[in-house]
C-alpha cells in the first residue's frame, strides 16, 4: 500500500525556534492519529503538510507528491478542520460551506448541493440556514467538519476536533469521524492530545515529543496483540480453576478478590475459558481484553530514553 | 443525491478553472454589499454627478433646447478636458467615501474570524485572495468613476460630431488611467489598513487620517519650512498633480483654489509624484503580504 504521508528529515524553524526536528517516517493508515503533549509540534506538522509553513530542510510527501513543489495540486485533495474558531461571520451555515466548496473548485450548483448534503451528514440539517455567529461551540465544530468534507477530499486533516465539546457532542463527532474513516476514498489525520479520541478513531499513531517522533505505531497490530491479554473478575475462583486454565496453556496471574489476568496462547477460544469456569463452579462476572494499549505506547514514548529513539516507518 | 440520504459520497464531478476562482470572492462580497439598502442608496447618489454632467453635455450640444429653457448666451459651460478633470475629481471623492465604507469590511472580518486558513488550505493563493478582495472595490468604484465618464465622453462625441472623438482621445485615456490609478491606490490602502486594524470603524477612521491629517501635516511642514516637499505625504495633492498632467490641465487652475496660497507649493516634480504613488502601493502590498498568512508566526 502506498504511503499516505512520507516525512523525509522534515525540519521546520519558526522564528528562531526549531519546532520540528528532522522527522523521518512513513504513514499508511486510513486514519492516522497525531498524539503528543501541548507544544510537541502536532499543529505545526499539520500546518507544514498544508503548506502554511515552509520546511527549513527536508521535505514531506502526501500520496507521493512533494509538498515543496506540488502544494497547489495537493490542496485539491485536502480537507482541513482547524483547531480554533475559524469561519466567516454574517453567513448562514450552508452558504459558508457552499462558499468553501466553491473555493475548492466545485461549480456553484454542485457546491450548493454538496453543502446541503454535508450539513445533513454532520447532523446540522435543520440549522443550516441559521447564521454561523449564532451556532453553539459544538455546532461550529460540526460546521467546520462540513466545510472540510463538502468538496470530497482524499485526505482530511482534523486538528483537535473534539476540543470544547460536551460528552454527547464528542461522541457524535467521534462517530462521524469513524464513519468517514469507513468510506473508501478518504484518509484521515487526526491531531489530538486526547488518547481516547485517537484510540477510538485511528488505526495508526504518530507520537510527537519536543518536535521529534517519539513513537510510530500500528494500533491495529497492537490491538490484535492485546487480544491475547484477558482480564477476568470472578466469584469463587480457586487454585483448581487456575490449574485448569494452565492446563489450557494459559499463563495466569491472580490478584486476589477473584481477579485474574491471562495471556492466551494461539488457537484458544473464549468458549474454552467459559467451559473451564463451569467445570470448576466459577462465576465469570466480567471479562475484558486489555484496552490500554495506546496509553502504554504513549507513556513509553514520553519516557526520555524512548523519546530520543525517534523516527521509523510501518 | 437527495439530502435525506445521509451517507458521505466523494465528489467526482468537474472542477472550475483555476484562474476563475478569485472571482468567487467578489460574487459573495457584492451579494452581501447589495443587501445593504443604505449602501445601495449611496451608490445611487454617487451617480448624480453623472446625471448632472449628462444633462450639461446635452444642453451644451443643443442650443435650441437652451433657448427653449431661456439659457441664452455664448458662455455656456465648455465640454473639454477641464470639464472631465473636475468631474473625475468630484467622483474620486465619492469613490473615497465608498472605499472607506466598504474596504475595511473586506479583509478584517476574515482575520477576526481566523478564516484565512480556510481559504488558503484550498487551491487558492494569497495573491488570488487579494485579487478577489480588491476586485470588489474595482467593480464598485469603476461603476461610479470611469465607466460613466466614458459614457459621457461618448455622448459628447456623438453630440459634437466632426471628429471630436479622435481629437479628444487623450481625455478618454486620462479618464481611464486617472480613475484606475486612484482606484488602485485607495483600494490597496483600504485592504492594507483593514488587514492591520481589525476594528472596522478604526480602519475607516485611519483611512481618513492618512488622507486628511497627513495632508494637514504636509501643509504645516510646507508653511514652517517654506518648502513644497511636505506635499509628499499629501496623497490628494499628489494625485491631483498626476491627473492635471494626464488631462493636460494647468495645475494652478485646480489646486490654487483649494489649498494653495504660496506658488512655491506647486512645484513638486511630476516624476516624484508618480514615485510617491508607486511607493504607497508597494508599502500596501508589503503590509498585506506580511499580514495575510494562514498562520501567524510569533517570533
The end-to-end distance of chain B, rounded to whole angstroms, is 48 Å
% residues in beta strands of chain B = under 5%
Protein structure class of chain A: alpha/beta
Count of DSSP H/I helices of chain A: 12
User: What's the assembly state of these chains?
Assistant: heterodimer
- Please give the radius of gyration of chain A in angstroms: 23 Å
Strand order across the biggest sheet of chain A?
6-7-8-3-9-10
Question: How would you characterize this protein structure?
Answer:
The complex is a heterodimer of chains A (314) and B (299). Chain A is built from twelve helices and 15 strands. Chain A is an alpha/beta fold and 314 residues long. In chain A, strand 12 (251-254) and strand 13 (259-263) form a beta hairpin. Mean pLDDT of chain A is 87; it is low at 306-310. With 299 residues, chain B is mainly alpha-helical. In chain B, 70% of the residues lie in helices and 0% in strands. Chain B has 15 helices and no strands. Chain B has helices at 24-33, 37-45, 48-61, 63-68, 81-102, 104-112, 116-120, 126-144, 146-160, 164-167, 169-196, 200-225, 235-247, 251-258, 270-291. Chain B is globular, with a radius of gyration of 23 Å. The chains are: A alpha/beta (314), B mainly alpha (299).
Keywords:
A: 314 residues, 6-stranded mixed sheet, 5-stranded mixed sheet, 15 strands, B: 299 residues, mainly alpha, 0% strand
Can you describe this structure in just a few lines?
The complex is a heterodimer of chains A (314) and B (299). With 314 residues, chain A is of the alpha/beta class. Chain A has helices spanning 42-49, 71-75, 93-103, 108-121, 137-149, 167-181, 195-201, 219-226, 239-247, 270-279, 293-302, 304-307, and strands spanning 5-14, 17-27, 31-35, 57-62, 65-66, 78-81, 155-159, 187-191, 204-209, 212-218, 229-235, 251-254, 259-263, 283-289, 312-313.
Amino acid at each position: 500500500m502506498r504511503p499516505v504521508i512520507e516525512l523525509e528529515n522534515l525540519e521546520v524553524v519558526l522564528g528562531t525556534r526549531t519546532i520540528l526536528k528532522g522527522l523521518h517516517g512513513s504513514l499508511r493508515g486510513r486514519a492516522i492519529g497525531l498524539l503528543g503533549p501541548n507544544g510537541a509540534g502536532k499543529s505545526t506538522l499539520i500546518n507544514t503538510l498544508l503548506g502554511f509553513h515552509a520546511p527549513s530542510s527536508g521535505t514531506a510527501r502526501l500520496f507521493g507528491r512533494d509538498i515543496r513543489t506540488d502544494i497547489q495540486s495537493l490542496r485539491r485533495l485536502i480537507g482541513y478542520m482547524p483547531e480554533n474558531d475559524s469561519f466567516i461571520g454574517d453567513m448562514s451555515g450552508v452558504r459558508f460551506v457552499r462558499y468553501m466548496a466553491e473555493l475548492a473548485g466545485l461549480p456553484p450548483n454542485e457546491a450548493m448541493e454538496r453543502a446541503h448534503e454535508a450539513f445533513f451528514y454532520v447532523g446540522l440539517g435543520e440549522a443550516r440556514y441559521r447564521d454561523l455567529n449564532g451556532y453553539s461551540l459544538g455546532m461550529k465544530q460540526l460546521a467546520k467538519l462540513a466545510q472540510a468534507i463538502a468538496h470530497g477530499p482524499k485526505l482530511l486533516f482534523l486538528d483537535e476536533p473534539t476540543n470544547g465539546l460536551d460528552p454527547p457532542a464528542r461522541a457524535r463527532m467521534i462517530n462521524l469521524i469513524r464513519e468517514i474513516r469507513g468510506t473508501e476514498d478518504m484518509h484521515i489525520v487526526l491531531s489530538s492530545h486526547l488518547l481516547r479520541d485517537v484510540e477510538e478513531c485511528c488505526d495508526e499513531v504518530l507520537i510527537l515529543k519536543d518536535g521529534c517522533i517519539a513513537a510510530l505505531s500500528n494500533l491495529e497490530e497492537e490491538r490484535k496483540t492485546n487480544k491475547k491479554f484477558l482480564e477476568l473478575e470472578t466469584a469463587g475462583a480457586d487454585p483448581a480453576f487456575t490449574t485448569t486454565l494452565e492446563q489450557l496453556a494459559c499463563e495466569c496471574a491472580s490478584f486476589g478478590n477473584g481477579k485474574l489476568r491471562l495471556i492466551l496462547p494461539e488457537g484458544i477460544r473464549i468458549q474454552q475459558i467459559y467451559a473451564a469456569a463451569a467445570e470448576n463452579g466459577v462465576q465469570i462476572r466480567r471479562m475484558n481484553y486489555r484496552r490500554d494499549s495506546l496509553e502504554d505506547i504513549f507513556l513509553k514514548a514520553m519516557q526520555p530514553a524512548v523519546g530520543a529513539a525517534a523516527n521509523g516507518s510501518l | 443525491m437527495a439530502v435525506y440520504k445521509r451517507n458521505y459520497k466523494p465528489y467526482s464531478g468537474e472542477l472550475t478553472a483555476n484562474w476563475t476562482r478569485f472571482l468567487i470572492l467578489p460574487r459573495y462580497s457584492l451579494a452581501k454589499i447589495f443587501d445593504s439598502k443604505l449602501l445601495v442608496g449611496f451608490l445611487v447618489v454617487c451617480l448624480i454627478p453623472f446625471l448632472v454632467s449628462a444633462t450639461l453635455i446635452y444642453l451644451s450640444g443643443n442650443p435650441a433646447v437652451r433657448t427653449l429653457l431661456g439659457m441664452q448666451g455664448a458662455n455656456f459651460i465648455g465640454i473639454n478636458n477641464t470639464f472631465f478633470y473636475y468631474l473625475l475629481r468630484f467622483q474620486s471623492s465619492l469613490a473615497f467615501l465608498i472605499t472607506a465604507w466598504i474596504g475595511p469590511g473586506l479583509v478584517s472580518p476574515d482575520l477576526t474570524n481566523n478564516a484565512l486558513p480556510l481559504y488558503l488550505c484550498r487551491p487558492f493563493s494569497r495573491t488570488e485572495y487579494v485579487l478577489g478582495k480588491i476586485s470588489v472595490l474595482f467593480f464598485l468604484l469603476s461603476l461610479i468613476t470611469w465607466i460613466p465618464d466614458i459614457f459621457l465622453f461618448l455622448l459628447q462625441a456623438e453630440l459634437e460630431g466632426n471628429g471630436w472623438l479622435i481629437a479628444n482621445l487623450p481625455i478618454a485615456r486620462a479618464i481611464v488611467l486617472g480613475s484606475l490609478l486612484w482606484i488602485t491606490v485607495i483600494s490597496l490602502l483600504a485592504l492594507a489598513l483593514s488587514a492591520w486594524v481589525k476594528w472596522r470603524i478604526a480602519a475607516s477612521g485611519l483611512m481618513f487620517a492618512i488622507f486628511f491629517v497627513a495632508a494637514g501635516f504636509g501643509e504645516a511642514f510646507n508653511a514652517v519650512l517654506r518648502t513644497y516637499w511636505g506635499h509628499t505625504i499629501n496623497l490628494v495633492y499628489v494625485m491631483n498633480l498626476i491627473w492635471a498632467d494626464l488631462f493636460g490641465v494647468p495645475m494652478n487652475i485646480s489646486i490654487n483654489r483649494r489649498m494653495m496660497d504660496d506658488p512655491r507649493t506647486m512645484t513638486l516634480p511630476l516624476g516624484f509624484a508618480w514615485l510617491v504613488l508607486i511607493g504607497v502601493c508597494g508599502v500596501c502590498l508589503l503590509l498585506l503580504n506580511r499580514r495575510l498568512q494562514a498562520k501567524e508566526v510569533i517570533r
